[in-house]
Write a sequence for this structure.
């Protein structure tokens, strides 16, 4: 089986990259960022379910792609498996309200935490790396 980069794959990584990079807002306005996302998770309204649905669908698409290409996967497709399972678990844990997960989120969104900048900088760097991977895949696919 020949290795192939599907047309949607670069856009997948760029979308997830942008989603993670938006957390630069957390470094610029701790309280505003925390209030917004804690509010979204608490209300579980249309925006929440729309965003979670999109993220879940993308993760499932990635995981299916990983297994569909078993034996001819690119190394970066492991991100689909590990990242996808993590995101799906995260979405599930938030939706059903696992106490240990809610406690973790409360700590992550504690604006007085000395680890605030480390936590959110990690996500920003992760997002930047994933976004750059998407750009690299787009370039590679065009050649």
């Amino acid at each position: 089986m020949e290795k192939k980069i599907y047309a949607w794959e670069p856009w997948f990584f760029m979308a997830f990259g942008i989603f993670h990079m938006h957390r630069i807002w957390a470094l610029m306005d701790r309280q505003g960022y925390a209030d917004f996302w804690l509010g979204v998770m608490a209300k579980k309204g249309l925006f929440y379910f729309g965003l979670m649905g999109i993220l879940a669908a993308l993760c499932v698409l990635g995981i299916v792609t990983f297994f569909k290409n078993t034996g001819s996967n690119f190394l970066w497709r492991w991100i689909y498996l590990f990242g996808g399972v993590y995101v799906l678990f995260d979405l599930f844990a938030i939706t059903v309200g696992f106490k240990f997960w809610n406690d973790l989120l409360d700590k992550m969104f504690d604006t007085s935490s000395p680890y605030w900048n480390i936590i959110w900088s990690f996500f920003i760097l992760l997002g930047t790396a994933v976004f750059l991977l998407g750009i690299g895949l787009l370039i590679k696919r065009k050649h």
About this structure: The chain is about 80% helix and 0% strand. The mean pLDDT is 94.
